[in-house]
Amino acid sequence: MGRQNARLAERLSFPNTGGAAVSRCTLTVADPWARASGLAGRFCDSENLSYRYCGGHDSTDSVARKPRESPAQVGRVGASRRAPQQGASGKPYSPPSCLLYSDGYNTLVLGANIDLESLCRVPRVGRPLRERRRGVDGLSNILCEAKFSTCVRRFRLLLLGAVAALILGACASPAPRFAPTAEAGVLPVASSTPWPTPTATPLPTSTPTPLPTSTPTALPTSTPTPLPTATPTPSTHAGTVVEGSIVKQESLSLGKVHSMVAAYLSAQTCPNSLYPVDVYRIQFRTRDRLGTEITVQADLRFPKVESQTEFPLFVYGSGTTGIANECATLNEYVGRRAWGNYRSHLTAYATQGYITAIANWQGFDDPDQTHPYFVAELEGYVMLDLTRAIYDFFSDPPAEDILARPAGAVFFGGYSQGGHGAFAGDAMAPGYAPELNIVGVVGHAIAPDVEGLMCDSPLYAPYIVSAYRAYYGEEIIQPQDVFQERWMATFDQDVTKCIDHVLGYYPNTHAAMYTPRFRDALENGQLAVEFAEFKAMLDLNHSGREVNPATPAIILHGAADPIVQLRTVEPFVQRLCAENKNVTYRVYPGVNHFTLRQTSHVDTLAWMQGILAGDAPVSDCGLLAQP
Q1: pTM of the model
Q2: Residue 200, domain member (yes or no)
Q3: pLDDT single digits (tens) 232-284
Q4: Contact call for residues 45 and 68 (beta carbons, < 8 A)
Q5: Where is the domain boundary, 387, 416, 448?
Q6: What residue numbers bound the domain in which 505 lies?
Q7: Do residue 276 and residue 382 come from a single domain?
Q8: Which one of 114, 145, 176 terminates a domain?
Q9: Less packed terminus of the chain by CB within 10 Å, N or C?
């Protein structure tokens, strides 16, 4: 039992609620009972993996062999096998009530409203080791330790006894008592070639924060065949700069910096510039949800100094730019687009003594996909691995005149969607990147609630529906169920427009955008009833789903924000306070979504500098709790 439990711990991993755990399995269970992300556990890929349905007509005999798949062949959840329409006996097919996966040693059970304890007493399912309920559509999953059938055990004992008898007989006499023969009733002499012992593939030593290397568990000597070797998650150097990718973009003199920042900020919020600024573009490695290594671009801006000087980090997430490749954040300046003026915005912090960085979100640098918009887990990976990449960049600077060095203090920040990503990274940090010292999180006009954004600003809804449908599966939501018929003829082309064109294209009202059914469900809190799977994904990506109470936060918002209204922001702030997070909350009368960062610039700097000086931020949670 101890060996099986150790083997199980070595070969199987469930993601934690913050999405930070790195699974060592490459196969994602994806069947009709696991269409929503997070419903299915991850089960190790194996040549012996099989599955069967149970509870429907002919389903108990529906057993299939699952061939080994490469990570590239593993589809998104909900995108693979479908149940047959007719049973093997010709009876009309009815949906199964549960689904069993087994690799011969462990079994994964997916089902709805099933007696998990009773089910695990079924032969070859066994005793429950771990149960994890995800709370979506009443589904649950349970992992059981396999119980081998009596006949298999007896066969193995008989085979081992025969082999032992042959070996003892050979040792007792120099001459064989019988000649090897192929006649019936006589066993052939067992081969003396030892069985191969499976070994764990070591993780690359260059990984900044390597996954724990598991020690292979020795097989019991009585086992005639070895366990199938699990395919490990593809090796990744997440958080490192891609060799040969560093390019110097520009070197801004103090006069140029002052001119740029003065044009961006008002006279009341524009402090004196302190440092000239150098800008470098890098490519760095991060991971997708399967653990596969991908490459993302980022821009670093930092003070140009004459001697080595340490500066704190300000890692920033961009607001909505679109979901098509051409809408990538770093295309804004060269494309002369108006998405957020991140060049001036982050230069304004770099000249005050911060090493700043901003990256493209996942998908923008891959011509074969669009950006997975408002997927918190992927945003968190980008924020955390970009921070690691900054340290990697300065560990071996590409030029001798780069004398800025990163200090240990890290601030996360973001505008609108980027605030959503900043809080995702903050929540994931303890599990995914515990070595990083995140000392504060800044939310500029943050959009913490995806459902709230659809309610406040319907013009963003086409991006959300298109991205979630592509990422989580077509079963999650259909555009024609959400949007009126007049938007459907050109829907796929329209969602490729970048945000500066979308703002003048879609009307920003429920009546002009949504179908009556979707509008009624959204306005009356009935999405969980009418669009259950879509609602589950919206909730999965809420910024308040997981809260890291260890880091203070400042939320800065405009009272006249038409994109993300205070009715959406204040419940999020209250949620943070309820989880004992220190929150400073500032509301600016008459300020809208697009001018908030400029208006709050001085307040943001003062809050960050206070933390660096060792001062505890003033929490406004007590004021929010008052009626």
Answers
A1: 0.65
A2: no
A3: 344 458 999 999 999 999 999 999 999 999 999 988 888 999 999 999 999 99
A4: yes
A5: 448
A6: 450-541
A7: yes
A8: 145
A9: C
Return the amino acid letter for 259. Answer: S
CB 274 within 8 A of CB 605: no
3-state secondary structure of 585: strand
Are 415 and 460 in a shared domain? no
β-pair type (127-133, 139-145): antiparallel
CA atoms of 302 and 404, how far apart (whole Å): 7
User: In whole angstroms, what is the distance from residue 43 CA to residue 27 CA?
Assistant: 6
Angle (CA) 535-536-539 rounded to 5° is 85
Task: Please name the amino acid found at residue 384.
Answer: L
How many domains would you assign to the chain? 3
- Cα Rg of the chain, angstroms: 29
- Domain assignment of residue 173, yes or no: no
Return the C-alpha torsion angle 122, 123, 127, 129, nearest 10: -100
Identify whether the C-beta of residue 109 lies closer than 8 Å to the C-beta of residue 119: yes
Over residues 424-470, the pLDDT tens digits come to: 999 999 999 999 999 999 999 999 999 999 999 999 999 999 999 99
Q: Which two tokens stand for residue 509?
A: 């009202």
Contact 531, 519 (CB under 8 A): no
Is residue 339 situated within a structural domain? yes
Do 354 and 436 sit in the same domain of this protein? yes
The whole-angstrom separation of Cα 64 and Cα 67 is 9
Q: How many CB atoms lie within 10 A of CB 258?
A: 17
Return the sign of the alpha-carbon dihedral for residues 441, 614, 584, 261: negative
pLDDT of residue 161: 55
Tell me phi and psi for residue 233, to 5 degrees: -60, 140
